[in-house]
Amino acid sequence: MIEVDNYLSFVPQGKRWRIRKSFKIFAAGSSLRKRVAYSMAIVRLILVPVIFLAVYYLFVMGRIVDRIVNVDAPAAKLAEQASIEILEARRAVRNNLFATGCMSF
Description:
Layout: E1 2-4, E2 9-12, E3 17-18, H1 32-100
Antiparallel strand pairs: 1-2, 2-3
């Protein structure tokens, strides 16, 4: 049987376990203003690289889009033209076969 007393400690079968605090106060003896300043410094140390990486990846994505527009789009247009020419050649062959009478249904 597990009992919970007022001190947030568990007592299973005669043994006493205490829940440890999972946090510590940063700069415990300092004033609130200093602790806030330390916290803001830590936040800036984390956010500055993240922001720089985000801007860097935006430029990388811009280069990728430029490559798609300048290289891949003309290649796709040429492939489309080749496909159209092949379809026209097939249509011409079929019309020729119908005209000569070699093909019947």
